[in-house]
Write a structure and sequence with these properties.
Six copies of one chain form a homohexamer. Helices cover 74% and strands 0% of the residues of chain A. Chain A is built from six helices and no strands. The first copy, chain A, has helices spanning 5-21, 25-36, 45-58, 62-74, 79-93, 98-112. In chain A, helix 3 (45-58) runs antiparallel to helix 4 (62-74), helix 3 packs parallel to helix 5 and helix 4 (62-74) runs parallel beside helix 6. Chain A is globular and about 40 Å long. Chain B binds chain F through residues 58, 90-97, and chain F through 58, 90-97.
Chain lengths: 117, 117, 117, 117, 117, 117
């Protein structure tokens, strides 16, 4: 958000690589954990992405929201499911969530037009 | 948490009633919205409770966690599903979530022994 | 902030419309509540805008700050009143509020030159 | 809250004294600033207490809420003014504010019965 | 805090054990990481405890503060060093940190009298 | 971050000046305190910058991070020390810190090439 999809992903990948190459073992392990925790289990991968998305909304982290929106799109989350997730985030987190909803809806539209994420 | 189930529910009900009786219309409408947003829709009521629980964990609101744990128990959320939800909250929200995990697990055990919530 | 007044308002209006058109009833009700809560009552509309502004500062939401600054200007909040509001937000919320103070003062100056908000 | 008024004030005073006696100059200056910022100015002391109360609600600090409720009572804030302040805090901060509203209403009732705060 | 040292440690150990025994691998790995990250490295273990303590103060997690105060005591952090750490947390995080300073100073005094932590 | 070093410093200085010139005494005193709290004492200036940096990371304030990175560079903080500080912030604050790590590493590289900060 506040940048287009390609820029977002290019910066994200370049800097993640730099961080992982720097050799701090605890940060590396954290990054691995951050991927594993969303994989299919007792809860589906789709449900887990919605949990990650909700957490990202109420903690108001635009980059985290963008990342989980991309994953949600890959898991075939529908518009109605996205809006219900956002309605919970909004009620729990309050009106300070609204600017993040606006940017999320704008970004969701952008990635909905892409054939290839 | 930090109080048993009966005390938690008695205080909650008594004060909610006082707040609603005070006649502020906006607060009343917010309370109504706070119930409606978790009702069955494109997402199941169970998934919505897990979204509310995740939001409550990362925002570190013990009373909110207790409330959603009771609802999750009514929706037959399993131990494994609870732990996966908590693992996501922990990775997104960090180690400051851990004291809330401890109190949640303690409360979950307490309400698991109740035949009637 | 980080964008000029016209861009801010255009993006805000366009996306608010999209969100409201999407048909999620709870989000619609929340948006209605978010307007009503600032209307004249036992407290004046001006005082309520200052409460909303203080909340926006300590929660560090630049778009919310920009919105309430515009409303505060319409309610004839003086520079001295704005600075006293900011001093409370700063003491309660700490030095992490300072970057938001800088952007707020810059935006306040921008909207002070407008004859028509 | 979660403790009665007398305990709250006794612990608060005893520990504030210890902290100020420890001789850290910056902490001392911060405490002085924390008093001065609420004094009568372009905004009335009453309005400033409501700003401090709103900030305390949305940042979810029960002790801060208790302190500002005592000050608000001394400034003759009415029940309707308190509820309007809480309605703004609730809409801005979301449902995670509700447990704090409950404890605040309980505390407000307790201090309303005191002839001498 | 809000409980004495022995109760704090007994509850903490009992529930940590339950959480680790529940078999969620990601939570287990997070707990391991949470220990490792404070071990001696380019920065001393003492400095790392002060970093963890500062983070706990500004994020206002009393249990985390209590834990890091115990570790800080073991690393021979002096009263002056603790107060300087608290002064930074206070300036960065604002007056909402003050209730946590009070409880921390009370707890620090309690653990300072113990010959054996 | 999200702007280069020169722009960051120019905007920061210009607006700080405006804020200080506006004549609000409490804000002026807060700004003075915000400088003094990082000066050499029982803890070294370098350790204090790392405490300020950790607080800025977990509170997710990019401008604060940028400021403390510049100070850390002047205090000769090494790459390994920076990464260990970031690993603690990441474990305490969770994956929502990651976007700030990326921007911090990018900014650190930018200021590392400057002979004159």
């Amino acid at each position: 958000m506040s940048q287009n999809l390609d820029e977002f992903q290019a910066f994200r990948e370049k800097l993640n690589e730099k961080i992982l190459d720097a050799g701090n073992l605890e940060i590396k392990r954290f990054f691995a954990l951050d991927r594993k925790v969303y994989s299919e289990g007792a809860l589906s991968a789709k449900t887990k992405e919605l949990l990650g998305l909700t957490a990202s909304f109420v903690l108001r982290c635009d980059d985290c929201i963008a990342y989980h929106l991309i994953q949600a799109k890959k898991e075939n989350v529908s518009d109605a499911e996205l809006y219900e997730t956002m309605s919970i985030a909004l009620v729990v987190g309050g009106s300070i969530i609204i600017p993040h909803l606006r940017r999320a809806v704008d970004f969701w539209e952008e990635i909905s037009d892409k054939s290839n994420l």
